[in-house]
């Protein structure tokens, strides 16, 4: 326990220093995690945290519902309504375009089976806006751009996870049925997505009505924990999207629940509470990413990693520019530039890659390539997005 405390303290110190220097703290934590990963005194603890099952459970089952719920809780229906069409095209059309483009190009480069290539495509379709949103807010960019960035990421995480699960676990059945399999795959995709919407909607409405009957912010904070984790695990239990369920539940609680059942004190309390939880979650996730990256034998895959980075950037460009055609009035070209370069990959891609069955073809290569792209994304894109945004947007 002492080592865990010291790791946490070092992570907080690294975050505080990064904030003082006005650097994106996730990037600082990735680098710090990589440095600490080579210190022998932490070997025992590192081996525990970097166990594939432990890492996946920490990121997906513990932190993901909290991070998704906290972000959804803050988004207003009013802002989303203004940008709904743009977010829809980016999150649905853009994610699918990125998935297919990455799959085709990586299959051509690596000669992997199409299922394996599409699995990597699903991993590269999820974006992590933590660094980008903090930079946008610091620069004072247009509020709608920040809403689009965060709204797209919330929705596209759910879409990317659905695509990942369908590709990994249902590809053989879908492929064996030809065009009929595509119909089945599309129907399954809709079922999983709409099932998540239904679960999140019902749970969010129930929680909002419960909030109305109490004026005790400690109790209501606890109710919000039950809402986010309960909707997530209930949806996953019946094989629909837990991420989409949490997004919908958070949106309903943050808007309808706030309007009918939260006192001003409760609103302030719940925002501070989830800000703190999300901050701790992000600190530990990116720290773990840094620890994990340093153990990978990346040098054996340099050629493929460089190809994967180029393909990831190209696919993101296709996703943004193609999916938003016809939205010129809502999406200035400068915003598209920012969204393309700001489509960072993060801990979700890594956790999903590590959740692949041990017998899955090219599993090790997929994990290494994912780490390579995430590292480039967080360090290179993350450190330059602020400067580029000043040139493009401000």
Automatic annotation (TrEMBL):
Keyword match Lipoprotein: no
Subcellular location: Cell membrane
Keywords, comma-separated and alphabetical: Cell membrane, Ion transport, Membrane, Sodium, Sodium transport, Transmembrane, Transmembrane helix, Transport
InterPro entries to which the protein is assigned, alphabetical: Cation/H_exchanger_CPA1, Cation/H_exchanger_TM
Membrane topology term: Multi-pass membrane protein
Residues in Cation/H+ exchanger transmembrane domain copies: 10-390
GO molecular function per UniProt: potassium:proton antiporter activity; sodium:proton antiporter activity
Principal localisation: membrane
Gene3D superfamilies: 6.10.140.1330
GO CC terms, sorted: plasma membrane
Gene Ontology biological process terms in this record: regulation of intracellular pH; sodium ion import across plasma membrane
Entry superkingdom: Bacteria
Transmembrane annotation, as ranges: 28-47, 54-73, 85-109, 116-139, 159-180, 192-211, 231-252, 272-289, 301-327, 366-388
Protein name: Na+/H+ antiporter
Species in which this protein is naturally found: Desulfosporosinus metallidurans
């Amino acid at each position: 326990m002492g080592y865990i405390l010291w790791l946490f303290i070092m992570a907080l110190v690294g975050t505080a220093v990064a904030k003082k220097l006005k650097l994106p703290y996730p990037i600082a934590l990735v680098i710090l995690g990589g440095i600490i990963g080579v210190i022998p005194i932490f070997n025992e603890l590192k081996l525990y945290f970097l166990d594939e099952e432990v890492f996946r459970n920490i990121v997906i089952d513990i932190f993901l519902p909290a991070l998704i719920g906290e972000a959804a809780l803050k988004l207003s229906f009013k802002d989303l309504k203004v940008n709904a069409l743009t977010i829809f095209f980016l999150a649905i059309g853009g994610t699918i375009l990125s998935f297919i483009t990455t799959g085709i190009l990586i299959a051509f480069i690596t000669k992997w089976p199409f299922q394996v290539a599409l699995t990597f495509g699903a991993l590269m379709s999820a974006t992590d806006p933590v660094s980008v949103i903090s930079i946008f807010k610091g620069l004072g960019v247009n509020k709608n751009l920040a809403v689009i960035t965060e709204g797209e990421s919330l929705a596209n995480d759910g879409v990317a996870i659905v695509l990942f699960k369908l590709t990994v676990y249902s590809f053989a059945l879908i492929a064996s049925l030809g065009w009929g399999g595509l119909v089945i795959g599309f129907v399954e995709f809709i079922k999983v997505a709409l099932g998540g919407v239904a679960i999140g909607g019902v749970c969010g409405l129930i929680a909002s009505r419960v909030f109305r009957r109490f004026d005790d912010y400690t109790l209501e904070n606890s109710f919000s924990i039950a809402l986010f984790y309960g909707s997530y695990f209930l949806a996953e239990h019946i094989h629909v999207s837990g991420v989409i369920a949490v997004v919908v539940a958070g949106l309903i609680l943050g808007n309808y629940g706030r309007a009918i059942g939260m006192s001003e004190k409760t609103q302030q309390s719940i925002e501070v509470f989830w800000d703190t939880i999300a901050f701790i979650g992000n600190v530990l996730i990116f720290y773990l990413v840094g620890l994990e990256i340093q153990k990978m034998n990346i040098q054996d895959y340099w050629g493929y990693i460089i190809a994967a980075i180029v393909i990831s950037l190209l696919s993101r460009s296709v996703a943004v520019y193609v999916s938003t055609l016809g939205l010129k009035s809502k999406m200035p070209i400068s915003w598209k530039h920012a969204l393309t370069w700001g489509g960072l990959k993060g801990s979700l891609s890594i956790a999903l890659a590590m959740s692949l069955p041990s017998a899955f073809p090219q599993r090790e290569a997929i994990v290494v390539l994912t780490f390579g792209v995430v590292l480039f994304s967080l360090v290179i894109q993350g450190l330059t997005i602020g400067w580029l945004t000043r040139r493009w947007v401000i």
